[in-house]
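U., I forgot to send this yesterday:
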Amino acid sequence: MRMGLEGVNRERVADEKQAVVGYDAVSMTTLDPATTLAARFADVQSRVAGAARKCGRNPDDVTLIAISKTHPATLIKELVALGATDLGENRVQEAEGKIPEVGRTSARWHLVGHLQANKARRAVTLFDVIHSLDSIELATRLDRLCVELGRQSLPLLIQVDLGHEATKTGIDEQELPQLIETLGQLERLELIGLMTLPPFFADPEQARPYFRRLRQLRDQLATSGVFGERSGELSMGMTNDFAVAIEEGATMVRIGTAIFGERG
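Result:
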């Protein structure tokens, strides 16, 4: 698996009900709830790599982001010691208390949840990558804050709302051109890809059309050079559906339950 950038939103309530501790969405079996963090992390690494190889992809092209929301800094430190290099948080306020304790430079920190305008300043300071850009207003604010705080470049992904669920955020794909045009005028923001959070389905195959559509949008944008020399990241796939997401081209998968177990 790729452990660098070259290469969650809120996890669904249904996911927490369906994906019990250690739930294996690939083999449809369950793991022992008493399994250690080290064993769970190694298992997820193996499954992500296996899913990539199964569809003829290089495992190094898929970044595993461990979603650590609601889990204590002590547990996250243990995961970093096991080799985790990319960590994801949903809420700026929660991350604000944990990131300094774990270590700002101990891993690459990804904001994967909705970013409120009043939390943007702290997000610019705390996170290496933001996955949830969803408006022109937020983009403009982030760029201004980067200037004020002396941050030269902020990598980010646009969250695209493909499921149109009332409880989830993201920009409609019809509004993408305007947002991308605005980003082209902002010097401090670096667009590196797209993110989506499809509806939860007990059968992961039902999420495939959403992943496929995001890949199609990414490919269309890449041909116009929107991502510079990059091909464009695809942040999609969680515990229940990451194998399908990888088959559809995911370059970043966001996995929490299968690594850390159920949330407290």
